[in-house]
Design goal:
It is a single chain. By secondary structure, the chain is an alpha/beta fold. The protein folds into five domains: 122 residues, Conserved hypothetical protein from pyrococcus furiosus pfu- 392566-001, ParB domain, CATH 3.90.1530; 50 residues; 42 residues; 74 residues, no CATH class; 50 residues. A hairpin with a 5-residue loop joins β6 and β7. It is built from 15 helices and eight strands. The chain is elongated, with a radius of gyration of 32 Å. The chain has a five-stranded mixed β-sheet. It has a three-stranded antiparallel β-sheet with strand order 6-7-8, with helices on one face.
Length: 362
Amino acid sequence: MARKQSDYLAALLADEEVTNTKAEMESGAASALPSDKEATAPDSPRSERLRGSTLLGRESALARVASGEVRQVTQLLLDPARVRVWKGNARSYEHLSEESCRELIDSIIAEGGQKVAAVVRRIEGDPAHDYEVVAGTRRHWSVSWLRANSYPQMQFLAQVAHLDDEAAFRLADLENRARKDVSDLERARNYAQALNDHYGSHLTRMAERLKLSKGWLSKMIKVAGLPDQVLAAFASPADVQLKPAYPLAQALDDRSAATAILREAKALAREQQERRKMGDPAIPANAVIAHLLAAPKTAKERSGPVTYASDFGRPAVTVKSINRQGVTLQLHSGSGMSLEEQVELARCVLVDLQIEGRGLHP
């Protein structure tokens, strides 16, 4: 973790941070206790010195705790089933899997449990849960998976923190910034929700609190507004990255362009679905973006009559108009096609228009 992020994390958990844990203090005090042999000679000068140093050590430790110089962290071993995931976290718990968490799962098994505690906070009013995860969603998922798969005694190591929602959001965001498996879209939508929930829709204030560029944050909020119809055109929401998606989000501000983009997105979504059914590779994200951005220009080019020719190069079927009332086709005489062939061509034209989202609606 970069020094800047490390300092930021330290500030967030200032009330929970430890310079010397309780265990360390107790072990330090215990090391100063006299041995059994020495204890049999209470009147010896060495025994008196040890007893005095032990008392002084304990008094010093208590004084440091009382002064705030030393803070104690509460770490617990919990049943993950009694811990829910805080909804303010950007990471999508539903999209975690054995594959995506495999490395962490193997690490927990090899080390006999978690070595890095998650951060949780206590909750009230939920009979099914006692805590919620603020940072450590993957650890919670992995321990839960292990308990259900041959490691029923595995427990969830967590540090209990006292955080309000805004501080919890900043802590979760800090952890997720370095995670490659948290997509730009997940973070963008998380920021958009937090902007409303924690910062009164004041972008400047949010940028200052998160120590982020206001311009970059503004772009993230813009991408968060991409409609679900557009996202369906991608093989996965994780494919939506900030840099290429931002121009698309801007293009949707134009109402006429938005109509064409949404129509193209609908056609792409159908094609993606067909490819999944057939086991074919999905349309890559860069191609999806290119198709969507080109849709307004393509729609203008198709706004006039479009004529389909026969194999003889003669006009056969022309799409005269497309509107809410329906589609008007003209079948040309002298095309060189039989009536059946011309009707089949007209049917294919209607199917193509339907795929594009411009065909007849039931």
